[in-house]
Design a protein that fits this description.
The complex is a heterodimer. Chain A is mainly alpha-helical. Chain A contains seven helices and no strands. Chain A has one domain. In chain A, about 40% of the residues are buried. By secondary structure, chain B is α+β, with helices and mostly antiparallel strands. Among the domains of chain B are: about 110 residues, Thrombin, subunit H; about 80 residues, Rod shape-determining protein MreC, domain 2 (Thrombin, subunit H, Beta Barrel). Chain B is built from five helices and twelve strands. In chain B, the strands form two sheets. In chain B, strands 1-2-5-4-3-12 form a six-stranded antiparallel beta barrel. In chain B, strands 6-7-8-11-10-9 form a six-stranded antiparallel barrel. The chains are: A mainly alpha, B alpha+beta.
């Protein structure tokens, strides 16, 4: 258990620093940024109690908000996907999640991809809706959600792929 | 009672989620109204420290450009100084011992800059310890940047002009028609000026600068040039797009402006 704690705290700190110091400055085509810190919520231990998942997601989002001066948008989006996480785990991994036998890196690619993209898209949709907070910019919200999601999903697949190989 | 406790235990996840979610939404709503986002601010010891640590490395990459800007500014100031000494000195005697200069300038460095969202903030490395307070104007040698919004001991957060909540009084340089500087969130180099009446002779390339009524900026701080404008048939006001002199994506060093007469003027106005 202690090993889980250390690895998750390390992941938290590293992902926050990467997010606020590097990824927030990318601004590809003026508005596209990946939000890699979502990976922390995706990779929280699968058997972690639900309320802990919700709380840690909130903490992650709030830390990012603190750096970004963005009010509570990242916190809101993160706490929502933290809350929805068990349902999506059940949806994506099916029966093997129920029996607590899933190992994240050993799941079939299609299932992992479904899980990642569902949570990322929901996170980004809430994030950009709250960031822009104005229905007359709905096209901009959808545009940002679409492109940033693609960017984030790609980055998450690459990063989790690299760490998967390290573990073997 | 037992049932209430059972209910709380049964739905504790949902309740925790709702509580935290509503809290975040509350923070978000606060951040969308001017001068109210007090709770979540990067002007604190931790985030300010990390940003300033990274900025110490990052700034070396921009040194060349900052030096060129400095030389440009020095050239401009030297030309003005030379022109000033050509003129005969005025006989009006200014008693500098008893009167402060109306404006005091504090130099600072931008350590975090954002421009890709609708509501953008900057972080600068001077705070209350350097007598920075809320509502100081922020400019560079090229033009206007924003207004100080939150301060901590060593850092201050600045509302950028690239923030949909900011509104600054500006006017045309050649006439005295004034309007309000806003931003529509699209291009970090283009801002909008509203409320310039249709009587005003606006032309492409006209200079816009600050108006000096707002107590925050002195008169004549440059803002930008008119990029294009529109006057619809039944409108009384122009829609003007202004190209900024400043490159808001790379700011570097800034001046914070303290208006020494601000309190006096405010107290006069509140007496009315």
């Amino acid at each position: 258990m202690n090993k889980f704690l250390v690895s998750n705290i390390t992941r938290f700190v590293i992902l926050v620093l990467i997010q606020v110091l590097i990824l927030n400055n990318i601004n590809f085509l003026g508005f596209i940024n990946p939000y890699l810190y979502v990976l922390f919520i995706l990779l929280l231990p699968l058997n972690l109690t639900h309320y802990k998942v919700i709380f840690f997601s909130f903490l992650m989002g709030l830390t990012i908000d603190l750096f970004e001066d963005s009010g509570g948008i990242n916190a809101a989006a993160s706490v929502l996907i933290g809350f929805l996480r068990p349902s999506f785990l059940r949806f994506s991994f099916g029966i093997s999640y129920e029996h607590q036998t899933v190992k994240f890196h050993q799941t079939p690619f299609a299932q992992r991809f479904t899980y990642i993209s569902l949570l990322v898209v929901i996170h980004h949709l809430v994030l950009f809706s709250l960031e822009i907070f104005n229905l007359s910019y709905i096209i901009l919200i959808l545009k940002k959600t679409l492109f940033s999601s693609i960017f984030t999903i790609l980055l998450i697949l690459i990063v989790s792929g690299i760490f998967q190989q390290n573990k073997r | 009672m037992q049932q209430i406790v059972n209910f709380l235990i049964k739905y504790k996840n949902t309740l925790l989620f709702l509580f935290l979610f509503l809290l975040s939404v509350f923070f978000t709503i606060q951040s969308h109204s001017y001068h109210k986002s007090k709770f979540i601010s990067s002007a604190n010891f931790l985030t300010g420290g990390i940003y300033s640590w990274v900025n110490n490395i990052d700034m070396y990459f921009n040194l060349k450009e900052y030096n060129e800007r400095l030389v440009d500014e020095n050239k401009f100031l030297r030309e003005n100084l030379a022109a000033l000494s050509e003129k005969e000195l005025d006989s009006v005697f200014l008693d500098t011992a008893s009167y402060d200069a109306p404006y005091k300038f504090i130099t600072a460095k931008v350590i975090a800059n954002r421009y890709s969202r609708l509501d953008n903030f900057l972080l600068v490395n001077k705070g209350e310890n350097d007598s920075v307070a809320t509502d100081f104007g922020v400019i560079t040698s090229r033009g206007i940047v924003g207004i100080v919004d939150e301060t901590s001991n060593n850092y201050s957060r600045v509302i950028s002009i690239l923030n949909t909540n900011s509104a600054i009084n500006v006017k045309l340089k050649k006439t005295n028609h004034f309007g309000t500087l806003k931003w529509n969130g699209k291009d970090p180099n283009i801002v909008q000026v509203e409320e310039i009446p249709r009587l005003a002779p606006v032309k492409k390339g006209d200079t816009i600068h600050t108006e000096g009524r707002s107590l925050i900026f002195p008169k004549g701080i440059p803002v930008g040039v008119v990029e294009n404008y529109q006057l619809k048939n039944n409108q009384n006001y122009y829609d003007i797009n202004v190209r900024l002199f400043n490159d808001m994506t790379n700011i570097g060093y800034v001046y914070l402006i303290k208006n020494n007469n601000q309190e006096e003027i405010k107290s006069l106005e509140s007496n009315e």
